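Components:
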Amino acid sequence: MADATTKPTAIIWFRDDLRISDNAALASVANDFTVVPVYIRQDHIANRSIGGAKKWWLHRSLEALADDLAKLGAPLVLASGDPYVILANLAQLTSASRIVWNRRYHPEAIRHDTELKSHLSGDGFEVETFPGFLLHEPTKLKTGTGNFYKVFSPFWRSLDSTIELQKPIPAPQSLRPASPYPASEQLSDWKLLPTNPDWSGGIGANWHPGEKAAHAKLADFVETRLENYGEGRDRPDRDDTTRLSPHLAFGEITPAQIFAKLDEGRTSAGNLGLDALRRQVGWREFAWHLLVNQPLLPTSNHKIQFDDFPWSDNTEGLLAWQQGLTGYPIVDAGMRQLRQTGWMHNRVRMITASFLTKHLLIDWREGEAWFWDNLVDADLASNAASWQWVAGTGFDAAPYFRIFNPILQGQKFDPEGTYVRAFVPELASLPSKHIHTPWEAPAAILARASIQLGQDYPHPVIDHAEARQRALSAYASIKDAA
DNA sequence: TTTTGAGTTGTTCGA
DNA sequence: GTCGAACAACTCAAA
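Structure:
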């Protein structure tokens, strides 16, 4: 009634946090303010354009968020342009006194948001920012000697034992809209969905963006797959992973919410899957910990001796890898899964990344960029940290002689070839015995499976043993130089 | 300050 | 088929 007009007004700026629950910024204004939720279009993150798969997800996720906010009573306002201008204009229009957001952590965003906060504060607005993206503040967690952590295990021991499990904040029951209420741009005008051609079919069939879908997926996982997660998560031929990564990347769900849900299922009998999943979430924390403390992570070798590494300009090899035509079935299945669904199983990310950097000797940054463009869950920190780890250039990196054997990996983690058959249909009729080594299959068996190597499916682009030796000598060359 | 133990995810070879 | 050792040396984190 009367108090709707007497309450002050606040603007909440949504960014990497497309959710209404466990949203500290939103909760801070939900009760005592009339509000304007705004999302400002951003085509770049850290000087990179957003990949097509993520644009598709963003569109759907904004739809879901807008829907939720409309039901609460304060529709989402979409705007394009410079955040300072937009926020200041909105504040003027609605007589807002307070502006809030949840923090982001990629280096450019930290710089940008810090500057923006000081400008807006200088203009007389009360600006407050909140955590919400991670379980820890990357600049605050330190080793005993005051440095940031560079090795996962001690990092995780420290974080895992000190996490005070904040209870996730419930979503507000309702919101009071500011008055007057600003006009919004139309989401469809942002043209985030692909047209001509619309390649999003495979992605749309696999994913349901949005906060509600994220929580439904988590609940289903805890109920049906958590128990198998410890070993099952390594199997691309099974569906034992959470597939929560894109939901996390868009902030539709928080690590705190995941941990809280997991805790409900904690038993005295053993918590193998539960602890394994916490640990995986810990890897995301660690990647951001590294990125915040080492902003060059996405672009520069952490181990600088790799600046002299003889990477190859193998454009044919790069193309074969990108298209899933290397002749190694597990590699090709992974690369095609990525193109078709915007996602790749974690085990296969390692296999394909090892193949690019070690078998083809192509700079990890080429692979990082390709993953960034195609992954629906593309995460600046996880992507960069993981590529550097595989390439051997990064923090706590794999020893140089750790070169994945794509044949063994296929046989071990996709023993029946289920995964290969799903994404490399031209091999579907091949018996399991030969599914990971079609070039060794007897002619009669290839004929029966209607495969002519070199025609229906490529010969291996390079022999494994030869590639292994080549990679080992390439690594030896920079070791000698150093 | 020095010392010590440890470090996601592997492969190959030879007994 | 299975198993342990070798593949290197270095950096990190904590005692």
